[in-house]
Amino acid sequence: MKFNKVLEDIKIYEAGKPIELVVREFGIAPENVVKLASNENPLGTNPAVAKVIADNAHKAHLYPDDSMFELKAALASKYAVQENNLIIGAGSDQVLEFISRAVLNENSSVLMSAVTFAMYEIYAKQMGAKVIRTASYAHQYDEFMEAYRMHKPRIVYLCTPNNPTGDGTSKEEVLAIIHAVDKETLVVVDGAYMEYAAAKDANYAISPNELLGFENVIYLGTFSKAYGLGGMRVGYGIAQPELIHELYKMRPPFNISTLSLAAAIEACKDDSFVKESIALHQEEIKRYEAFAKEQGFGYIESYTNFITYLFDETMDSTKIADALLKRGVIIRNLASYEMNAIRITIGTTRQNDIFFKHFLEVTA
Ligand code: PMP
Questions:
Q1: pLDDT of residue 149
Q2: How many other β-carbons are positioned within 10 Å of the β-carbon of residue 165?
Q3: Which residue ranges in the chain fall short of pLDDT 50?
Q4: What confidence score (pLDDT) does residue 15 get?
Q5: For residue 270, how many other CB atoms are within 10 A of its CB?
Q6: Nearest CA residue ID for atom 13, ligand 1
Q7: Residues sharing a CB contact under 8 Å with residue 159, sequence separation 6 or more, in sequence order
Q8: Cβ pair 173, 180 in contact under 8 A
Q9: At 341, is the secondary structure helix, strand, or coil?
Q10: Which CATH class, in words, describes the domain spanning 47-267?
Q11: 308 CB near ligand 1 (under 6 Å)
C-alpha cells in the first residue's frame, strides 16, 4: 500500500500520557495518579458548565446548531468583535488545520520559532510545505525577519505565550513582526494560553480585536486551558470576514459536538471560574520557581499554566520523567524537542506537593 510521499517526513504527535496508561502499566490506583502533562485546568471543569453538559445528555442524538449562533454571539460580545469575524473548531487545533489547508502547498514554506507547538509542523508537512525555524525558541524580531526575508513563508506562527517553553512575547514585539511582513503572508497569533499571560503582565496581553485591522492576521483562542474544557474540544479563530469566509470552505459540518457547543456557551457566561483558576495558578507557580532555585537548576519564566525546568548535564530529563511516571506523576519530557528539560502543568496545591516530593526522591 502506498501513502502520500509527504507522510514520510511526519512524526506522529506525541500527546501527554493519559491516567489510564499509568494505571494499566504500573498498577497505580487512579486516585494516586497526578497528571501534570497536558496543560489542563487542575480545578477541573466549572460546575455550572458540567451541569449543562449533563443536562444536555438527552440531546446527544441531535446534531448541534451548525451556525453556532449562540456561541458566536457570546464570543463576539466577550471580545468586542462581530460574528463574521469568528470560526469555531474542534479545538484550536482544527482551526490550525483549516488554515494550513487553505494557504499551503508543496511550493510554500512556514516560519516558526525553534521550539513551539508541534502541530504547526505536522499540518504544514501534510500539505508538503517546508518548515523553517528560527534559531531560538523565543520569538525574536531579528531572527524572524531574517528568516522571513530569506524564505518568504506563506505563514508565520507566533505562539504567545509559547508552548512547550512557556515564555511570552510582548504585544509590542508581536505587532512589530505583523507590521514588517507583507499582506501575502498569513500571521497566526496563537493565544491558547493568553488568559495566563494577560493576568501576569498587561504588556503581554493581546486581544483579538486589536489585530482585526490586519487582513492577513488570525488570532486563535481555546476553551481547553483556562476554561477547563480540554475534553470538550472547542477553539476559535478571529480574523477579518474575508479570511474567515475562506477557512469556512475547509470546515466539515457539525465540527463540534452538541455537548461541546452547550458547554462552551455556558462557559462564556461567567468568568469567575477562569479568575479562580488563574488566582490558584499564580500562587502555585511561585512554589515551582522557588523549588527550582532551591534545587539549583534553571527554569523559563512562564506566561502560561505550566513551567519548563531546564537541566544541565548532571540531570537527565528522560530519566527523571520515566522515574516520575512509574510513581504515577505524569509530566512532559522535552527530550523530543532536543531540550534537556521537563514541562510541568501547574496543579492544585496537593498535586504540586506530590510532584515536589517525588521529584526530590527520584533525583536524590
Ligand atoms: N496551540 C497551542 C499553543 C497549544 O498548546 C494547544 C494545545 N496544547 C493548542 C493550540 C490546541 O489546543 P486545543 O486544540 O485544545 O484548542
A1: 97
A2: 29
A3: none
A4: 82
A5: 12
A6: 91
A7: 112, 113, 116, 117, 120, 139, 190, 192
A8: no
A9: strand
A10: alpha beta
A11: no
Whether ligand 1 lies within 6 angstroms of the CB of 345 is answered as no
DSSP 209: G
Pairing state between β 298-300 and 109-112: unpaired
Residue 17: what pLDDT? Answer: 83
- Which atom of ligand 1 has the smallest separation from the CA of 92? 16
Q: Which three cell numbers stand for residue 342?
A: 521537563
d(CA 145, ligand 1 centre) in Å: 25
Grid cell digits, residue 233: 474540544
The answer, yes or no, to whether any atom of ligand 1 lies below 6 A from the CB of 91, is yes
d(CA 194, CA 62): 33
> 3-state class of 178 per DSSP?
helix
Q: What is the pLDDT of residue 14?
A: 82
For residue 157, the CA-to-ligand 1 centroid distance in Å is 13
User: What integer pLDDT is reported at residue 16 of this predicted model?
Assistant: 78
Segments making up each domain of the chain, as ranges: 5-44+272-362, 47-267
Q: How far apart are CA 190 and CA 256, in angstroms?
A: 20
Q: What is the pLDDT of residue 270?
A: 87
234: left (phi over 0), alpha (psi -120 to 50) or beta: beta
Q: Are 95 and 89 in contact (CB under 8 A)?
A: yes
CATH number of 5-44+272-362, picked from 3.30.460.10, 3.90.1150.10, 3.40.50.300, 3.40.605.10: 3.90.1150.10
Q: What is the dihedral of CA 335, 341, 345, 349, to 10 degrees?
A: 140
pLDDT digits (tens, 9 = 90+) for 237-260: 999 999 999 999 999 999 999 999
